[in-house]
Write a structure and sequence with these properties.
The chain contains nine helices and eight strands. An eight-stranded parallel beta sheet has the order 1-8-7-6-5-4-3-2. Pathway: Carbohydrate degradation. Its cofactor is Co(2+); Zn(2+); Mn(2+); Fe(2+).
Length: 228
């Protein structure tokens, strides 16, 4: 199973977003954090910036909506050019309907869980999704330390994915770096959002390649991957 590295532009220079996107041309996706200062205590960017980014890069956009009322707003991010749209389970009023609408508009549908939100109540929803995001920090700000207490949750999520025979990507976001990515891969993650671990380096493209190698080496021998 191929691992994917999604650099987060939350850690990029917002005055040079087009250039920062091109600096990670080898990435699988470009992770775009949308925050509304309501669901999380921070305000970042919205639909117009996503539209501009989609025109500025060939790397597909992975939009993570940390916003209230995603049922209303998420479809607009598909129309803006996002290839994957993640809404939060804690914010969505009708997650199944929303996931189906995102898919119907042509994007991958993803649902995110904050650290305190368990995966088990959402087991029956997994077939409606293309990706499940386990937050490994509290959403809202970049540069936070990785919460290793999320590793058992990643394992449980991977077990549910395997139980149902789903081709569901399992993403982790928060504190992912050279020192934590291998733990995440061993636990079952295969899509990794990395912000400061990529953009706070002298060579973001090289950082992406290094993280991908680390995750791929662990995944190759991980029990969950060998079972497929």
């Amino acid at each position: 199973m191929a691992v994917q590295i999604n650099p987060s532009i939350l850690s990029a220079d917002f005055s040079r977003l087009a250039e920062e996107a091109k600096a990670v041309d080898g990435a699988d996706w470009l992770h775009v954090d949308v925050m509304d200062n309501h669901f999380v205590p921070n305000l970042t960017l919205g639909v117009p910036v996503v539209e501009s980014l989609a025109r500025a890069t060939d790397t597909p956009l992975d939009c993570h909506l940390m916003i209230e009322n995603p049922d209303r707003w998420a479809p607009q991010y598909v129309e803006a050019g996002a290839g994957s749209v993640t809404f939060h389970a804690e914010a969505a009023a009708a997650p199944v309907r929303l996931a189906r609408e995102i898919r119907a508009k042509g994007a991958r549908a993803s649902m995110a869980l904050k650290p305190a939100t368990p995966i088990e109540p959402y087991e029956d929803l997994l077939p409606e999704l293309d990706m499940l995001l386990v937050m490994t920090v509290e959403p809202g700000f970049g540069g936070q330390a990785f919460l290793d207490i999320m590793l058992p949750k990643i394992r449980r999520t991977r077990e549910l994915i395997s139980k149902h025979g789903l081709k569901l990507w399992l993403q982790v976001d928060g504190g992912v770096s050279a020192s934590t990515i291998e733990q995440c891969a061993e636990a079952g993650a295969d899509v990794f959002v990395a912000g400061s671990a990529v953009y706070d380096t002298d060579d973001p493209a090289a950082a992406v390649s290094m993280l991908r190698r680390q995750a791929a080496e662990v995944t190759a021998s991980a029990p969950w991957a060998c079972a497929h």
